[in-house]
Design a protein that fits this description.
single chain, 313 residues, alpha+beta, Jelly Rolls, seven-stranded antiparallel beta sheet, three-stranded antiparallel beta sheet, 12 strands, globular
Length: 313
């Protein structure tokens, strides 16, 4: 694997000022943009804000079995001992479970839902594969929050993702409300890359998935972007869908409510943006965090099994 030019220096190669992204947000030309389920108005919203929110996109009945699978994992002590299952640092509760599309055939089918797959292909202008899949869970009263960060900064530095050509699809498995720690995003923050200071520790993932210490933007940058673009907090019932660009700054508060908040994430990466060597110079993270084996492009699954019924309002 040949070394690539690092267009987004960060951490060990830290520079102080944020700078504009090198790639477009929508990876299609003006004539091709109409080739997909998203309208031109929705494409412009995504281009401007860095995310799209669809309340009640899937039925709550369709996603309920996925939340049940999370309960099964939490009761399985052998599963909880695996590296891909991240426990909350202060409680014996699951914080994240990675590689869900490989653990569950139902999750795998959902990654290939024809409507979902068509949207991300339209945004990225190419075939796609799953870079990472996970459930993030916040149990009632004790679910911890996540620091402000850009996913791309970590995927670039620690996984070797060359360019900003990935999108996350977050499906709410439980109701997300103002009280149980929903995701917060800064509109427009995806337009600039924010270098982050600090050296990446060896095997940083073993602690960063519980509490992120490096790869966190300065408070000055976060405040400047939030004062300019505001902060949005997409909420909705179970089954709601959020698509957000890989460089959009996001975070979430702790869950102080009695209600759990569980979200499923699929990270779709362009087949033209596969992993290189980590730009931090460290060893690559495990495959359950970053797919490196060049899987074939995803093909739509057109079955009618549970979890695949789409609600169109």
């Amino acid at each position: 694997m040949q070394p690539m030019t690092d267009y987004y220096p960060t951490r060990e190669h830290f520079i102080e000022e944020r700078f504009p992204r090198k790639e477009p947000v929508i990876h299609l030309d003006s004539q091709e943009r109409a080739n997909g389920p998203l309208s031109e108005e929705e494409l412009q919203d995504y281009e401007r804000n860095g995310f799209l929110s669809f309340e009640g996109y899937f039925s709550s009945e369709a996603v309920a079995p996925f939340f049940d699978e999370l309960d099964d994992i939490e009761r399985d002590s052998a599963m909880c001992a695996r590296d891909q299952v991240i426990m909350d640092p202060n409680q014996k509760k699951v914080r994240s479970v990675f590689d869900m599309h490989k653990l569950s055939s139902a999750f795998d089918r959902m990654t290939r839902h024809p409507h979902l797959l068509a949207m991300v292909q339209q945004l990225l202008g190419s075939d796609v594969y799953i870079h990472q899949s996970r459930i993030n869970d916040k149990s009632g009263f004790c679910g911890k929050g996540f620091e402000w960060h850009s996913d791309f900064e970590t995927w670039h530095s620690e996984d070797g993702m060359p360019a900003m050509r990935a999108v996350s699809a977050s499906i709410m498995l439980t109701d997300n409300n103002a009280f149980n720690g929903p995701l917060m995003l800064i509109p427009g923050s995806h337009q600039a890359f924010i270098p982050c200071p600090g050296e990446t520790p060896d095997n940083n993932w073993t602690q960063s998935l519980r509490k992120q210490m490096v790869g966190v933007p300065s408070r000055e940058d976060i405040a400047d972007l939030a004062n300019s673009g505001g902060i949005k907090q997409p909420t909705g019932p179970a089954g709601s869908l959020l698509l957000f660009e890989c460089n959009t700054l996001h975070a979430s508060n702790a869950n102080m409510s009695p209600w759990p908040r569980s979200n499923l994430f699929f990270v779709y990466n362009s087949v033209e943006n596969r992993m290189n060597k980590p730009f931090s110079g460290k060893a690559p993270r495990p495959s359950f965090l970053a797919t490196r084996d060049n899987p074939p492009p995803l093909k739509a699954h057109c079955g009618e099994e549970q979890g695949e019924t789409l609600l169109i309002s």
